[in-house]
């Protein structure tokens, strides 16, 4: 039930992020979303250091930093942990009508006090950069960001209308990364 609640919150973040990027664009772009689901069993809890060690079904172990976890005292060896990791990248092009910029937002949702530990953290970064150069053959684009830094990126085939991007256009890159985690009954 709790993972379902976090999934709804996560989908809300995705939709808002997507709509924000779409609203700022004048030319078509691309949005790529990757979802990874994961589960593991708690093998150790260090309450003093606020870490939790998990073993994946394949046997690999990982120790997570739980310094911000609410209700950590309820986590016990043998508990099952389910997690979802979502990554979204949206790319849109518009005419250069404002200076380059960068913004970042974060959404944090935690389980209510007394319930099994669970949480969602979603970070969204949006950068507007000017197109300095473009190579249609190699599918690369050179961008100048708000701090004046220049960087060249390889552009995936999924980005439609790449041939419509011109020097002087602005590219809006929006990157969202979210992680939802919940301790569930074994």
Short description:
The chain has 186 residues and is mostly beta strands. Helix content is 12%, strand content 54%. The protein has one helix at 2-23, and strands at residues 27-46, 51-55, 61-65, 80-95, 101-110, 118-135, 140-144, 150-154, 169-184.
Would you mind describing this structure in some detail?
It contains 1 helix and 9 strands. With 186 residues, it is mainly beta. Strands 1, 2, 3, 4, 5, 6, 7, 8 and 9 form a 9-stranded antiparallel β-sheet that branches. The longest helix is centred in the N-terminal third of the chain and has 22 residues, at 2-23. The two termini are 14 Å apart. 22% of the residues are buried. The model is unreliable at 14-26 (pLDDT under 50).
Using only C-alpha atoms, the radius of gyration works out to 20 Å
Major β-sheet, in short?
Answer: 9 strands, antiparallel
Number of helices: 1
Overall number of strands: 9
Please provide the ordered H/E string of secondary-structure elements: HEEEEEEEEE
């Amino acid at each position: 039930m709790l993972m379902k609640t976090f999934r709804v919150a996560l989908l809300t973040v995705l939709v808002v992020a997507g709509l924000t990027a779409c609203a700022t664009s004048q030319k078509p772009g691309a949005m790529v979303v990757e979802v990874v689901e994961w589960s593991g069993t708690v093998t150790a809890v260090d309450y003093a250091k606020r870490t939790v060690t998990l073993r994946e079904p394949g046997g690999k172990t990982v120790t997570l930093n739980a310094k911000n976890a609410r209700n950590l005292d309820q986590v016990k060896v043998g508990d099952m942990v389910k997690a979802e990791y979502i990554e979204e990248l949206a790319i849109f092009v518009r005419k250069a009508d404002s200076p380059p910029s960068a913004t970042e937002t974060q959404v944090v949702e935690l389980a209510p006090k007394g319930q099994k530990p669970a949480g969602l953290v979603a970070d969204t970064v949006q950068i507007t950069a000017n197109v300095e150069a473009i190579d249609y053959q190699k599918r690369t684009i050179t961008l100048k960001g708000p701090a004046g830094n220049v960087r060249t990126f390889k552009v995936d085939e999924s980005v439609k209308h790449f041939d419509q991007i011109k020097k002087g256009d602005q590219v809006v890159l929006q990157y969202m990364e979210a992680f939802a985690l919940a301790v569930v009954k074994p």
